[in-house]
From TrEMBL:
Transmembrane segments: none annotated. Residues 1-174 form the Reverse transcriptase domain. This is RNA-directed DNA polymerase. Belongs to the bacterial reverse transcriptase family. It holds the Pfam family RVT_1. SUPFAM superfamilies: DNA/RNA polymerases, Trypsin-like serine proteases. It is an enzyme of class 2 (transferase).
Length: 467
């Protein structure tokens, strides 16, 4: 049944909540003692029914294995599947009634949700005397669809919520999009801020909502995994995670405080993934630019950023690599044979050590060519003695050039300036679509090379020396 979202592959509390996004009114009902209500007798009746047609002997044995007279055992792998089979008749009746009462219906285990695109139908059929009142047909579909052995509603957990208030479906906010509760976000933010200040005990207390003295050994031991799980859950609810500023800020905080044995959280502020390249040609001429790591390819930057260091007649044939917080990462010494394969202004440094990548969030990418009017953005770095700072420049794609030996250059009114060369160019979804190429007219216009041309550029090999 399309209305069932619990215990089915590819469905979850997120897909359950997505069915009700943008509704005027949402009604939530809860079945009392859901698994205990499904006794071995009900399972036996299901197995000998015409749809399954098992013999009484086989049905009796199976029903005794998977259930007891007191209901389905919670935690057994068979219980969720059997509960969905038992509820099939109820789900069909409730779906049929949706045409009459004009609601959208979904179920996740014992949580039944009804939503209305028009509040008129809710107030006409489900509201009376200032309270939630279920129509008799709908109530009977839940409590009497199997005669005396049906379900009982938990009236204390029944609720309704309108669009001008927070709407929850199976614990997920779904007013305009799926999201976590505001208090959950604040708890995560406060926890990560405490961690960033070195207050581990305070972070645990904040996360669990307890005083430090009341924390159990199990909670202390599971804290790191549980915190990461909460961030992953938040990420799973966001349709386009790399466009969610709150999630990206939490990801950046987490990556700065995470234990060494935990992987980097992938969704973070874009500037955390930027790499700063700096060097000189041995003749007191310095050069600089930006780069980023593209999974499956290597460290991508502009060819003109590194070309001054690869010529054979230069005394210094190396380039320094820094993270976005000005932490020295490595020196890359170019090999003896570095020849530009084509005229594309891009280079890919190969064999990047895992130690460098361990603390750098990976950026999502898109190889498709943009079209005129698409929104794009890129970062400019500002250098100081203690740190780098980054400024986001945004603009629109003005036109796509004709394919040539230099690639298919794209022209934009995004202000590209000195030092941005080789840095990633993002589309409106936060995906990398190219690298900054050149700036013209005092930085008011710029061009970038699409990512699909970058990956067909020169592979550069050499020796990595870690700091």
């Amino acid at each position: 049944m399309p209305c069932v979202h619990g215990f089915i592959k590819g469905r979850s509390i997120k897909t359950n909540a997505e069915n009700h996004i943008g509704s005027q009114v949402i009604v939530g009902l809860d079945i009392k003692d859901f698994f205990p209500s499904i006794s071995s007798r009900r399972v036996y009746g299901l197995l000998v029914s015409k749809k399954l047609g098992l013999t009484p002997e086989v049905a009796f044995c199976i029903s005794r294995i998977v259930a007891t007279p007191k209901g389905l055992p919670q935690g057994a792998p068979s219980s969720p599947i059997i509960s969905n089979m038992i509820c099939l008749g109820m789900d069909k009746q409730l779906m049929h009634l949706s045409r009459e009462y004009r609601y959208q219906y979904s179920r996740y285990a014992d949580d039944l949700t009804f939503s209305f695109n028009s509040s008129y139908f809710f107030y006409r059929n489900f509201y009376s005397g200032g309270k939630l009142r279920l129509p008799n047909k709908l109530r009977n579909a839940i409590t009497s669809f199997h005669g005396t052995e049906s379900f009982e509603l938990n009236e204390d957990k029944s609720f309704y919520s309108c669009s001008f208030s927070r709407q929850l479906v199976t614990g997920v906010v779904c007013n305009q999009k799926t999201n976590i509760k505001r208090e959950q976000y604040r708890r995560l933010r406060s926890t990560l801020h405490r961690l960033s200040n070195g207050d581990i005990e305070g972070a645990m207390g904040c996360y669990y909502g307890k005083t430090i003295a009341k924390l159990t050994d199990a909670e202390r031991g599971m804290f790191e995994a549980s915190l990461r799980g909460s961030l992953d859950f938040y990420k799973s609810l966001i349709k386009d995670p790399w466009t969610s500023g709150p999630l990206m800020r939490l990801g950046s905080l987490y990556n700065k405080t995470k234990p060494e044995n935990m992987p980097t959280f992938p969704v973070a502020l874009q500037q955390d993934s930027l790499l700063y390249l700096e060097g000189d040609d041995g003749e007191e001429n310095s050069f600089e630019g930006l780069g980023f790591y593209l999974p499956g390819y290597g460290l991508v930057t502009a060819w003109h950023v590194i070309c001054d260091a690869v010529s054979h007649d230069k005394t210094s044939r190396e380039i320094k690599l820094f993270s976005s917080d000005k932490t020295p990462l490595a020196i890359f010494r170019f090999g003896n044979e570095v020849v530009q394969d084509n005229k594309h202004d891009a280079a890919i440094l190969q064999d990047v050590p895992p130690a460098i990548l361990r603390n750098i969030p990976l950026l999502p990418s898109n190889m498709d060519l943009l079209t005129k009017g698409d929104r794009i953005s890129a970062y400019q770095h500002h250098f100081s003695k203690s740190r780098f700072s980054f400024e986001l420049h945004s603009g629109d794609l003005l036109r796509v050039g004709e394919p040539s030996e230099e690639g298919t250059l794209c022209y934009t009114n995004c202000s590209f300036r000195h030092g941005m060369s080789g840095g990633p160019v993002f589309n409106g979804l936060g995906q990398v679509v190219g690298i900054a190429h050149t700036a013209t007219e005092h930085g008011k216009l710029g061009s970038f090379l699409p990512l699909r041309d970058c990956v067909r550029s020169t592979d550069v090999y050499g020796e990595w020396l870690l700091f």
